[in-house]
Amino acid sequence: MTQAMIEALDEEECWTAVRLRDRAFDGGFVTGVLSTGIYCRPSCAARHPRRENVRFFSDGAAARGAGLRPCLRCCPDDVARDERAVLAAIAAIRGAEQPLALGNLAARAGYSPTHFQRVFARHTGLSPAAYARALRAERMTEALSDTGRVTDAIYEAGFSGPSRFYAASEGRLGMAASAWVNGGQGVTIRWAVVATSLGQMLVAATDKGVCRLSFAEGPEALARRFPKAELVEGGEDFAALLAQVVAAVETPGSGSHIPLDVRGTAFQEAVWRELQRIPPGETRSYAQIAAAVGKPGAVRAAGSANGANAVAVLIPCHRVVRSDGSLGGYAYGLAIKQELLDREKP
Ligand SMILES: [Zn+2]
Predict the structure, then answer these.
(1) pLDDT digits (tens, 9 = 90+) for 319-337
(2) Could you tell me which of 274, 269, 246, 244 has the C-alpha nearest to residue 259?
(3) Is 40 a known active-site residue?
(4) Which residues contact 215 (CB under 8 A, 6 or more apart)?
(5) Cα(304)–Cα(265) distance, rounded to whole angstroms?
(6) Which of 17, 113, 125, 302 could form a disulfide with 106 if both were Cys (CB 3.0 to 4.6 A apart)?
(7) Ligand 1 center to residue 58 CA distance, Å?
(8) Span from the CA of 259 to the centroid of ligand 1 (angstroms)
(9) First to last CA, the chain
(10) Out of 156-160, 178-182, 248-252, 308-312, which region has the weakest mean confidence (pLDDT)?
(11) 38 CA to middle of ligand 1, Å?
């Protein structure tokens, strides 16, 4: 591996992705482990190697060139094949009149049922059967009136009353004097988990703005992220903001006025601002984002910054795809990414 390649990969960000088992980086690089002679995708579920034994490679071919073998557990060379298989299965499930058996879906992909179930869950967060159930529930919801749905969901969740709590906030990245570096010490974070057409959504906010928006995640994850913050569920002051956030997720492109309270490195923040400039209905490649922030060589670092985005949808990291037009990764699974992009199509 050349020095230039190592710099482009940005080792610290790769290692962070590995420690978080961040699926968004699968296909972006592989993790070589010198002590065992194998290489893995960043999200491999195996126990983490010691940092000093790890070398990062741009892809499997580079790792094999260094004498390493692919991991039998995470099959790092199958990222593209997995992605195709999952998307094909999603299309089949969506188009089917009757539920499809796992064995049937697996056979179409050429995987064993157990392996296919694991691959599917890695991408979507759900088993194929659970995905089909969620799809049916979503279609039933869609059949109901769309207008009342968002508000009803929130009021049923126990929130009520108007609020001017966030009225003074401005629609920008709120990165003033937050205490994020100290694990949120001295900060009160209000949160709620609400049902949306994309599944369960976690929304959390400080009094400056939204600090976390994620899917298939509960308050435990929030506590890990902000270990010293005071976490408070719901509350009237939070209801108005929550309603705006849910509406922004259900109606793409409507959330640009929502205040955010996120903090990253100068480079990450530059990337996030650039993501906010991508209009709904359009996409950019990681290379385009890197060039737009003035670092055309830092394509993988731009990918890492994209993956480090704490507020899905509001900072639209789903609008970044691979240069060849394929979806690339997404922290909450490709099905959600595809759905968000489909909704934004003009
Ligand atoms: Zn592995």
Answers:
(1) 998 877 788 878 888 889 9
(2) 244
(3) yes
(4) 125, 198, 199, 200, 201, 202, 312, 332, 333, 336
(5) 12
(6) 113
(7) 16
(8) 39
(9) 43
(10) 156-160
(11) 8
Strand residues in the chain grouped as ranges (E): 30-33, 38-40, 54-57, 69-70, 188-196, 199-205, 210-215, 230-233, 284-285, 320-321
Tens digit of each residue's pLDDT (9 = 90 or more) over 35-75: 999 999 998 888 899 999 999 998 899 999 999 999 998 88
Given 14, 44, 75, 317, the catalytic residue: 317
Taking the CB of residue 253, how many other CB atoms lie within 10 A of it? 12
* Ligand 1 mean position, distance from CA 30 (Å): 9
pLDDT category of residue 224 using cuts at 50, 70 and 90: confident
* Residue 28 CA, ligand 1 centroid: distance in Å: 15
How many residues make up the chain in this entry?
A: 346
Q: Any idea which residue has 């005071």 for tokens?
A: 230
Tally: H helices and E strands in the chain: 14, 10
Q: What is the pLDDT of residues 141-156, one digit of tens each?
A: 444 334 333 333 333 3
- Is residue 317 part of the annotated active site? The answer reads yes
Residue 195 has pLDDT above 90, yes or no: no
Catalytic residue among 14, 40, 44, 71: 40
Q: What beta strand segments (E) does 111-209 contain?
A: 188-196, 199-205
**Residues 220, 212: contact at Cβ < 8 Å?**
no
